[in-house]
Amino acid sequence: MEKIQILWQSTAIPHFEMGQIIMMLVGFGLLYLAIVKKFEPLLLLPIGFGALLTNIPLAGFSEVGGLLHYIYYIGVDTGIFPLLIFMGVGAMTDFGALIANPKTLWLGAAAQFGIFATLFGAIALNALPGFEFTLQDAAAIAIIGGADGPTAIFLASKLAPELLGAIAVAAYSYMALVPIIQPPIMKALTTPEERQIKMNQLRVVSKREKIIFPLAVLFLTILVLPSATPLVGMFCLGNLMKESGVVDRLSNTAQNELINIVTIFLGLAVGSKLSSEAFLTVETLGILGLGAVAFSIGTAAGVLMAKLLAKFSKEPINPLIGAAGVSAVPMAARVVNKVGLDANPHNFLLMHAMGPNVAGVLGSAVAAGILLALVG
Amino acid sequence: MEKIQILWQSTAIPHFEMGQIIMMLVGFGLLYLAIVKKFEPLLLLPIGFGALLTNIPLAGFSEVGGLLHYIYYIGVDTGIFPLLIFMGVGAMTDFGALIANPKTLWLGAAAQFGIFATLFGAIALNALPGFEFTLQDAAAIAIIGGADGPTAIFLASKLAPELLGAIAVAAYSYMALVPIIQPPIMKALTTPEERQIKMNQLRVVSKREKIIFPLAVLFLTILVLPSATPLVGMFCLGNLMKESGVVDRLSNTAQNELINIVTIFLGLAVGSKLSSEAFLTVETLGILGLGAVAFSIGTAAGVLMAKLLAKFSKEPINPLIGAAGVSAVPMAARVVNKVGLDANPHNFLLMHAMGPNVAGVLGSAVAAGILLALVG
Amino acid sequence: MEKIQILWQSTAIPHFEMGQIIMMLVGFGLLYLAIVKKFEPLLLLPIGFGALLTNIPLAGFSEVGGLLHYIYYIGVDTGIFPLLIFMGVGAMTDFGALIANPKTLWLGAAAQFGIFATLFGAIALNALPGFEFTLQDAAAIAIIGGADGPTAIFLASKLAPELLGAIAVAAYSYMALVPIIQPPIMKALTTPEERQIKMNQLRVVSKREKIIFPLAVLFLTILVLPSATPLVGMFCLGNLMKESGVVDRLSNTAQNELINIVTIFLGLAVGSKLSSEAFLTVETLGILGLGAVAFSIGTAAGVLMAKLLAKFSKEPINPLIGAAGVSAVPMAARVVNKVGLDANPHNFLLMHAMGPNVAGVLGSAVAAGILLALVG
Amino acid sequence: MTPPTISEQLLEAASLLLVGMSSVFVFLSVLIVSVKLITKFVEAFPEPAATAHVTPTAASSSFHQQDVITAITHAVSAYRQGKQPPSN
Amino acid sequence: MTPPTISEQLLEAASLLLVGMSSVFVFLSVLIVSVKLITKFVEAFPEPAATAHVTPTAASSSFHQQDVITAITHAVSAYRQGKQPPSN
Amino acid sequence: MTPPTISEQLLEAASLLLVGMSSVFVFLSVLIVSVKLITKFVEAFPEPAATAHVTPTAASSSFHQQDVITAITHAVSAYRQGKQPPSN
Ligand code: NA
Ligand code: NA
Ligand code: NA
Q1: Which residue of B72, B373, D86, E8 is 20 to 30 Å from B104, comparing CA positions?
Q2: How many domains does chain F divide into?
Q3: In chain B, which among 40-69 make CB contacts under 8 A with chain F?
Q4: Inter-chain residue contact E27 with A102, CB threshold 8 Å
Q5: Which of A112, A135, A375 lies nearest to residue E21, judging by beta carbons?
Q6: E28 and E67 fall within a common domain
């Protein structure tokens, strides 16, 4: 009898709290989004699974000695995992389109307005009862507008670790929602004629330009924004490994096995921050709302900047490509391509959108560095 | 002269203890089994090599600052390595046969009798002089009957770390000996007619069933056996990654590079526990004896359960497939197939044995959770 | 205004020290050597990049909490990374040529004279003002003569961590310079007739010999040189995994993904030791000079030993193959082949040079063990 | 606290045997029921054949950029088309 | 230290917005100039077509040993040649 | 403890040179003998050609499950055979 009592007490049933049940539903929801809706499954599947595990009563996944505790403290608290992912992403990124048309860097710059406007919005939310975002919190939330997962996780782990779970979930969810969020904004801000503009073929970029480019980016970052060098540095290392062509085995490993291993762990670690105390707050609602606003503002700023550029440019510029400046590589570029095809079924904008798209990655890494320097 | 004296003192020869020499022979023996006899070489080769290294005088592999010390404390003491291996095994496991014929879960359940009977046997051994197994020790030894390496290592690292080396060696050795241990028991408990029974073709299982299955297993484990969720959870994560089909690159890495890297380290770490103080005891003899008993009882219980099931089943059940319930995936299923072919050269039982085989993995993970809950 | 002041202070420009600028130039120089000159790019690219990162003002890569700090303390301070690389190199090494012609081990032994003569030279340098090498320093510098990267890094991390950066850079640079350093020495010490000597075809070595060989090497090392067992042991583990043929998936991972991941990290960690305080000293000049001397003496000793051997050998021995005894696998063997072809365009010495070449790896690991035992 | 006698230990082990095996059977029996329910559920709600294919390209957006190749193909064909007299 | 009022915070956020966006634009504008300079530099000093191919085999010496295969091929051919009457 | 003079250090280094090189030579010479013994041993006990092939499938049991494929093949053929009149 006593054994059965022990056994009953060792089931989770008498220990469940309402918050844990809700968070498990959130975890299942993320798994649903990942598996059925195919929303950024590489991250949302392990994040959702981590959310399930961390909320199991008695199992202690995120307590001292628990698996997720170790993974979080080894990889996220130290910043190692997002930086390794960034290295791998760098090794996958082709800057050819950007080097061929460097003006697109301005589009990547404009789209960062989503970040800084959202920072302002987060502080403005403090006027409402229940919200008490510090400047650090606001900066970590605003980076969602950068539409870049590793950058968001890295900055949140430095500025507002307690919001990390909500921020990462919002960042990846909205990145998956890019095909739904962006097109209405893009269409509202452009005329059908503008959307049909055909752009000139991009020139071929030489291997040496591609090798020097990451070094130039790093050099500039070192000079004026050392706080961005962890992110930009690892990104440029990955890109240099790829483009130099002399360490292909390292480059391949960085963009395959290493990034895969780290992605599994990073997802689980982020999921482990989805506890009810941290997530089931009115602030999470604020974060989700601000994230959507950030994406929208970033998209609009990119498109408007493209229209402005087009005014002063000798070559034709389709303003749609400005929307790709939010990054969310390569989905935002695909969305640009699709909206362009809707306007003119012979107008393929994908390559032209890759320039602002990768510029957006640099732009948000730079923005993260600025936020670290000013409020970190 | 003094230099030569230092040199002589810095050789291992004047420092060897008898126990170290014997343990090195044990290590060579494991290498022999792995390389020549092909006994579970993936684990026994690094375990044997680790046993050699850890017993070298003056080298300090397992002392503070030594390589094996780091590997053990990072990966085994924390439980990380066996859990990662279990994730990889989950990503390799196909539950199709089990879902098509869920009754075979009872065979996987019955075979766990080997575990609990052995626990009783280990305590009974305490009546003999020289044996002083605690209940924790007995539970860790009994899990050998689960015929599942990572489960055994995980449980032993939690309940009886000082017995870890002997338990892991016994578990993997007997898993390799399954083709020798099981057939006589299977033949003794069945008639030739029973062994010739042909089973009905299994139905095709849909992708969605395979996706929901690991989630259902996890859900059930969370509810009633949270102490089993580290093992079951990581296993189900691996299986979900595989079956969901949306994160193939993560699933492939989990079942290839990641599991390979962890296997090398896990083997070395287990080998590092093969010190003479821990291994050269009468208790090791007890562990080896109990392990053989556990496998035999588990096999017998599986076969008998299959005979019982056959009585009440409308569809024909070949009792041999019960033997696969001990897990030892997929060797036990192969043994069933072979013994079945001996009785009827046209009777292929492999697919039918895969159901109880993978059920045995779940069964012993559940049994491990129960033991952790009750004696941990 | 205040924000802009903060922003200015948060750029690197007002914080740069001359030493950091020079070290960044050194880093760029290493990248140049790696990418343009293709000098050992697998190591020199990450080392050069690490040198850039570690010298960025305010970024704190190598301070507590910085990425390179973690990588260094986890992987190099513990010795784990060089040992894992050595395991991978072992899994890539084919001892067939050495087993077929075991006398070539003497060539690998002779070439270690470069190490011990350099140790003497380093101490002799203390007579000059500005040099104060301890015996530990001298031993760590001398190992550059072993022409084996992981061995040099391992020994330096144990004996003289503050010299690690310079030693690793010298070791890899000179390994890349082998095609320039060795040929003049080889030609000076041999006559054209000697260089034309054709050697007999090597016999085929059986699989079993190749399996037993690493175990024999390990056994001998355990007996007489336990301090060398970390290096030799991991090397032999890799080689045994390869030759045994029973754990191909582990062997493949060890010589591909695992060694690639570790190489990236090791390179960055070594680069993080290239700080101006540690590198911009007169001692670094001494190290660079001594390294070149070590390679030259080793080459000469190998060739002279080969001439001596040829005197007493019944079979013809081309003295050029002695130069491969310095290791630098497989570049030194290629150099031998090339110099041989220059003398006789039909004389392919590559296979014959592989024997002393891999013997040199063992030889320098043994030398490292001796140095650890005597001055460690 | 005195160490348990051997008979106390055996009693404990026997009760573990009983409770443990019962739990394993209960657990896996519930799982059998669950699997049957899953099968019924899946049969009751057959997969809407189309939806699975709507957004597969959305997967893993931040990871691969092979579209670049597609894009180049398109760009080349667009470029060629641009040289031909427009047909639309 | 009293916590900042909401209007102080908003002022701070507004100044961050201004300074941040300016910095991003300045940074990426400088990068545009740099890219153009790189392109000019690369065009001004065209790659000496040959040098890149001089030492490619020198790469990663401590890593792969596939020459062994080459060597065996050579050795075999050398062996065969050794059996034939020397033609030189 | 006074630091060693340069000549003391040189003496030390010289003795290291002597002892070290001797040790390397002794070690590798013993290895030469060992290799020759291994070769003789391997020739003396030629491999029983068959044994190596007896249990290769036993390798790595807990790792791959490709038999499932084999099994399906077998199962299908068994299924077909089951439909034919039994010939045995
Ligand atoms: Na961005
Ligand atoms: Na089992
Ligand atoms: Na060497």
Answers
A1: B373
A2: 2
A3: 40-42
A4: no
A5: A112
A6: no
